[in-house]
Amino acid sequence: MEAEVREIRDHLAQYPPFDNLSEELLDEVAAAVEIAYFKAGTAILERDEPTHTLSYIRSGAVEVYLHNGQLYNRLDEGDIFGQFDLLRNQRVRFPVKAIEDTLLYLIPETVFQHLCSEDNNFADFVELSGSRLKSTVEQSLRDNDM
Known about the structure:
The chain has one domain (33-141): Jelly Rolls (Sandwich), CATH 2.60.120.10. 42% of the residues lie in helices and 26% in strands. The chain is built from five helices and eight strands.
């Protein structure tokens, strides 16, 4: 395994949902990753554009927005985004913008789908993490109204 792929693999293995993958699946993901860089202030995903990758934040930070422009969430190193678009219909529902210079690992849709079918923990994580994020945002909004 070449050094770059090993570094990608080792970083992914530190964060959920990749931290519980088998060695074989982790190797598959690392070998398929494409790397993308976005300067602070740059749009990463725009509403309704097609998407075919799961994004993993290697470094930096992003903001995820609702369709009305309201902030939905902030994500940083080790977080993923785009899973709901891949599960739903491959169109971006939540626009994403880099708020810091950001390095992403882009995981192709075919690898994402393979992980969902081969690893129940991975599938559960990507399918259920939206509920947790939504409830956190809703609680935050309730707290701000007080």
